[in-house]
Amino acid sequence: MPGPVPNREADLARPRERKGSDVQSVTKGVLRDVKVPNADRNWHPIAKRLWDSLKSSGQSDFYQNSDWAFAYSLCEDLSYYKKAGKRSGQMLQTIYSAFERLLVTEGDRRRVRIELHEPEAEEQSAAVLAIADYKRDLGLD
Predict the structure, then answer these.
(1) What's the gap between Cα 4 and its chain centre?
(2) Where does the record place Basic and acidic residues bias (predicted)?
């Protein structure tokens, strides 16, 4: 996923238009039930924190069992790296590059045109608001 991080869709002057060569067919499959494994108790605290953050992050809505297995393997590698006395910069770069495939950071997601947004506020129905107004007017509030 090399290259600059694209702007958010909302920041663009106009939506990106697809031209003939940009349009590609998509092969679709069926999502399966996902079982997220627990973090290894022996992992380095940073690896545990990253694992826990993956479970609560929006991009994990798209993860399947193979993605979780890959993330588990990477956290295992990161833990090994963090606990190692002598560290290799190349190993750390390789681990971080692999995490890009899981779209861990906002820049990684924007490069593949995935944006996470705040959940929309739930609006109360007109009936609920009318009843609340009625109770307030009667002094029952």
Answers:
(1) 19
(2) 8-21
Q: Between the CA of residue 98 and those of 73, 104, 120, what are the distances in Å? A: 10, 10, 32
Q: What is the DSSP letter of 59?
A: G
Contact between residue 71 and residue 102 where contact means Cβ atoms under 8 Å apart? yes
List phi, psi (to 5°) of 72. -60, -45
Give the integer Cα–Cα distance in Å for 107 and 115: 10
Residues 6/110, Cβ–Cβ less than 8 Å: yes
pLDDT in tens, 16-45: 555 555 556 767 788 889 999 999 999 999
Q: What pTM value is reported for the model?
A: 0.69
